[in-house]
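ARCHIVE CARD
SHELF: 3
SLOT: left
DATA:
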Amino acid sequence: MHIQIERSEVEHLALFGSLDTAGLDEIVGAATGRRYRASDTVFEQGEQATHFFVLVRGRLRVTQVTSEGQQIIIRMVNPGDLFGIAKALATLDYPGTATAVAESCALCWPMQMWTGLLERHPSLAIQAMQTMGSRLLEAQLRVRELSTEEVERRVAHAVLRLANQSGRKEPGGVRIDFPISKQDIAEMTGTTLHTVSRILTAWEGAGLVEGGRQKLLVRDPHGLVMVADGLRPCLL
């Protein structure tokens, strides 16, 4: 669904923080606003990459299906994130499928505008490079975790990343502020739904986390860091 997104709704985003008013007006004026309901697909893996996006509100899940047919979650998209930037990856197709996990709004531009926008607005190019760098670093960390760490530590790292990126402080801890299922966590960490269920049950018993309507509460972030770093015995 197409919607109107005003400059005032996006000027606080870090991606646009170094732009002057005229530059921001140009960039936002060239975009189309879109709204997605929870479970709507923004684009699919292998589809021709016709647009790139910035998430304004909500959360998206980006998944890939491997050659063996296994679905894995590549990352979560948070407000202010660039996504769908296939041209920056030198590919013509979207490498993953982006799906809204909550009602979301995004700005989108035709892919052919990518190079021109970056040339006219160097600060936007710098932010885009930083985005790519942070994603590369996160991908390297996840590969290392999958290759070297036991499953409980991998799950702890995944939950902590979600809490850091999308956490909302509450009296009882840090709430991951969008619906996240045990299957989602399994797909992030290369394990099974059964294993994630056992781990979260054990963590609830130890007071580390608390489940509830798919919005996980991290009750003891420090304790979870200890698990992730291998400084606390595994509970399984």
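SLOT: right
DATA:
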Amino acid sequence: MIVEFAPAKLNLSLRVVGRRADGHHLLDSLVAFADIGDTLAVAPGDATALSVDGPFAAALGDTLDNLALRAAQAFGAAGGAAIRLTKNLPVASGIGGGSADAAATLRALGRLHGRLPEPARLARIARDLGADVPVCLAGMPAWMSGTGEILEPAGPLPEAGVLLANPGIAVATRQVFAARGGPFSTPARFAIPGDAAGLARALTGTSNDLAEPATALAPAIGEVLAALESLPGALIARMSGSGATCFALFADRAGAKTAETALRAGAPPGWWIAAGGWHKPPEAAVVGPRGGC
């Protein structure tokens, strides 16, 4: 059995910089990964099938359209694979859970069969599965642009603690983009600072352009952000992706864990809360300037 971790994806910044003729939005985002996530276990089987357990298993609904199963089918290896997904991340929550699961499935099948598809085909599979799958497949801090297919290494992030919180609601990405108004942004990139406080200061010159429309659709997001911002030691609080999960950065993991205890003591019932640090990327991950993984 091959086990792969599917870490939560965090958009530390997310700028909407344009829109293609086909309606797809163009983004510029600094993406990082927390050591909080789902787990994929893959073993040889008579047919390719997916089973799901974990605290958010019921929220997934029909597993036949699950991204992990679609990733296994697109991988196209001879024989079948028994896939077990332990769903620890909330569904439709802006932290790339389904995309991370698909990427972990591709990595696990590659290990199981001793090979991955050739790079161009692997990149195509990832793009076809979803906009966040390429960066999740790479699994390391990256500047993501285009519609998600162009990746550039961001370099290692400084040590930091991460606290995630979700008000227990799902937000539809399509609705958030539709609710967004105003002009497009310009990219706001920077050299990665050497400590968490410097990273937080650099991030204040960026934004998540989807936070305002998402909060208009789901006002509870504003409550989560306010709660995170009020925690002792919080360096910055921001929504990830199209929401509703938000995060706060701290100087270290211990600070995030202390803040987690404080947040749980005052949070309304139904909030999902988890603390950790950065996920260590897989050693074999490679991010090319045009999105090759």
